[in-house]
Amino acid sequence: MIAPLALLVALGPWSGQDFPTGAPDTIKYKLTVSGDAGRDVKLRSGPLPKNWIASFCTPRVCAPFKTTITLPAAGTYVIEFQLIPPDGNVKHKVGVTVLADDGTSRATAIAR
Description:
Layout: E1 8-13, E2 27-34, E3 40-45, E4 53-57, E5 62-64, E6 66-70, E7 76-84, E8 96-101, E9 106-111
Antiparallel strand pairs: 1-2, 2-7, 3-6, 3-8, 4-5, 4-7, 8-9
């Protein structure tokens, strides 16, 4: 029997082309989720300042505050994670936490 892979999540600066589903005037991060292929992973944002919105974006859809993904055959999934400030000012400095749960293990990514 093969042991399950550890669930890993990481937040880093967004690079490359923005997904067409994303909103303008956001703080963008590259959220990388890795683990066992085919496993469903529930993602949710940690607490944010009042009136801020966290959004998990794929090329097809953005989901506010939480989403569930299925890890592909390669075992790694990249999401454009956005923080939308209430005043449109992307120069704010805000810490963010993303929590992941695949039903077997949990992981957390933090960006400050």
